[in-house]
Amino acid sequence: MLPEEVYKRRHWGTPESFFLITANYVTVAIATDFFAMCNPISIYFWITLAVLAFYNFYQLRREREMYDKARTIGYCISLVGLVLMFFLFRAGAHNC
Q: How many helical (H) and strand (E) elements, i.e. helices and strands, does the chain have?
């Protein structure tokens, strides 16, 4: 049998910030691969980033009370990681 404390623990689930960061990375990775691997970056890449920015704004406003200092710092670090990922992907761009 399991101890009684196991049943009394609260599980808060996966935080919504994790899903937002994951969606950001997947979207930027796919958009970079499809629209930004040629030397002139396609307009569709910038449209995809604009839609992603509006989605992030909407999610952050909707779940404002959930973002404490630690999650806000984590979200900002993930945005820096997105920029680094973009430049790493663009390092192998071709003339199309």
A: 4, 0
- Token pair of 38, please? 């040629």
Q: What are phi and psi of 49, to 5 degrees?
A: -65, -35
Which residue ranges make up each domain of the chain?
Answer: 16-90
**pTM, entire model:** 0.81
Distance CA 10, CA 63 (A): 21
User: Which pairs with CB-CB distance under 8 Å and at least 24 residues apart come from 65-71?
Assistant: 66/15, 66/16, 66/17, 67/17, 71/15, 71/17
pLDDT, tens digit, 9 for 90 and up, residues 17-46: 899 999 999 999 999 999 999 888 999 999
Least trusted range by pLDDT, from 11-15, 40-44, 58-62 = 11-15
